[in-house]
Design a protein that fits this description.
It is built from eight helices and four strands; from the N terminus they run H-H-H-H-H-H-E-E-H-E-E-H. It is an alpha+beta fold and 192 residues long. Strand 1 and strand 2 form a beta hairpin.
Amino acid sequence: MVDASEYSFDFLKMLFGDFGPLIYLEIFIRVFIIMAYTILIIRWIGKRAVGGLGSADILIIVAMGSAVGDATFYPSVPLSVALLVITLIAAFQKLYIYIGIRHEKVRKITHPKVLKLVENGKLLNENFTIDEIDKNEVYMLLREAGIKYLSEVEHAYYEQSGQLSVFKYENPMKEHSILPEHLDQLKEKSEK
């Protein structure tokens, strides 16, 4: 809890606090390590964890929110520290995007791959293990896209955002219902 006696209107103290110059180098190193580690952890957790936002987007929202909140509420956090952290987070985000665009090898590590999960009305089960998704999740995503029958789907791609892009046949055959009440029948047919 913050004590009211901690507040005093001393502009230089509010801006710089009682910190020495080495604190700013330490902050730079801390921000770099935390940002890099968190991006890798979010990537490891998977697409479904971050939803429609990318891992870097989630990270920037959380990190900047914390820096802004601490600086606005705690008098022991000088504004210069918060400004440096926010600037470093923004610079890290720009660098992360730049490196991802310029270097395909880095992008493969930091950005999830787009996976084809359905082709010609059939599930591509071998791709499910890459992003740790199961067929029930695929069925759910297909139903969310308005699909009732697996045979309606020409192609379905699991995007970097965790969303499913679905391309339907113009005149599909209506077989292999993916509605919950019909899934047991679909399972029996696929096992034959």
